[in-house]
């Protein structure tokens, strides 16, 4: 899953990137409103953490541009303490949630997880597909209760497929959602990650839909 962090304060931006990366996300950074607006229009993100007080273009204007252009990714806005009018304006402009600075990083991670789950139509923090359980809170995967060792990219591929269980997901979609923008992307490596996952997961769980991509086929 891929996150865009829009924050102009360098220390906080670095902390957010570190925490989200450690939680298993691919993370892109934007340090001003214009860059954020462009990235949100041309790249695929599963969620955005958006500070409203940005240089060049304020966060509220960025959000309005995205929503006006039909961009529907979940957005968590960051506001200054006591600026309740910013929260109201942000929600009215299309934000899905807000968090007041200063905040605990664990709360931000929990809110991001919840936004991504809701966008995928998932209610629980645990994604279940047959014997496979992915705990979005701890970034753990088990099969029949036994912990599964996955690389970071294998986890991202499985996480995206489980958030979209039953849907056909193309290699392009996976490439866009498991790599940050500055990563050397190669859609051919998706086949490698899927092949590795198939060796670790129950047989038949990941189906190949010829010419289209992959589908996670959950029993029942």
Describe the structure.
- The protein folds into 2 domains: 2-119, 3-Layer(aba) Sandwich (Rossmann fold), CATH 3.40.50.2300; 126-216, Arc Repressor Mutant, subunit A, CATH 1.10.10.10.
- The chain is 41% helix and 22% strand.
- The protein has helices spanning 10-22, 33-42, 59-68, 84-93, 105-119, 152-163, 171-178, 188-200, and strands spanning 2-6, 26-30, 47-51, 75-79, 97-100, 126-129, 132-135, 140-143, 146-147, 168-169, 206-209, 213-216.
- β1 (2-6), α1 and β2 (26-30) form a beta-alpha-beta unit.
- The longest helix is centred in the middle third of the chain and has 15 residues, at 105-119.
- It is globular, with a radius of gyration of 18 Å.
- The model has no long low-confidence stretch (mean pLDDT 93).
Q: Radius of gyration from the CA trace?
A: 18 Å
Class inferred from helices and paired strands:
alpha/beta
Q: Counting H and I runs of at least 4 residues, what is the number of helices? A: 8
Annotation, overall tally of beta strands: 12
Can you list the strand order of the major beta sheet?
2-1-3-4-5
Which fold does the CATH topology of the largest domain refer to?
Rossmann fold
End-to-end distance: 25 Å
Tell me the strand percentage band.
15-25%
Can you tell me the CATH superfamily of the largest domain? Response regulator
Q: How would you sum up the major sheet?
A: 5 strands, parallel
Instruction: Sketch the topology as an H/E string, one letter per element.
Output: EHEHEHEHEHEEEEHEHHEE
Shape-level CATH architecture of the largest domain? 3-Layer(aba) Sandwich
Mean pLDDT: 93
Anisotropy-based shape: globular
How is the quaternary structure best described? single chain
Domain count, please report it: 2
Helicity range of the residues?
A: 40-55%
Q: What CATH first level of the largest domain would be assigned?
A: Alpha Beta
Low-confidence stretches: none
């Amino acid at each position: 899953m891929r996150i865009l962090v829009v924050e102009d304060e360098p220390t906080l931006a670095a902390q957010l990137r570190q925490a989200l990366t450690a939680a298993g996300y691919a993370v892109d950074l934007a340090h001003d409103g214009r860059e954020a607006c462009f990235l949100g229009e041309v790249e695929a993100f599963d969620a955005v953490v958006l500070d409203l007080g940005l240089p060049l273009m304020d966060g509220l204007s960025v959000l309005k541009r995205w929503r006006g252009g039909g961009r529907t990714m979940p957005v968590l806005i960051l506001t200054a303490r006591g600026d309740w009018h910013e929260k109201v304006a942000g929600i009215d402009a299309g934000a899905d949630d807000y968090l007041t600075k200063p905040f605990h990083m664990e709360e931000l991670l929990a809110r991001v997880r919840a936004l991504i789950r809701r966008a995928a139509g998932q209610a629980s923090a645990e994604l279940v597909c047959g014997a496979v359980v992915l705990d979005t809170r701890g970034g753990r995967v088990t099969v029949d209760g036994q912990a599964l060792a996955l690389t970071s990219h294998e986890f991202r591929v499985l996480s995206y497929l489980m958030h979209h269980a039953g849907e056909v997901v193309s290699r392009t979609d996976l490439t866009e959602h498991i790599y940050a923008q500055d990563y050397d992307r190669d859609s051919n490596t998706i086949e490698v990650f899927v092949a590795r996952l198939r060796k670790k997961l129950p047989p038949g769980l990941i189906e190949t839909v010829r010419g289209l991509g992959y589908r996670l086929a959950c029993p029942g």
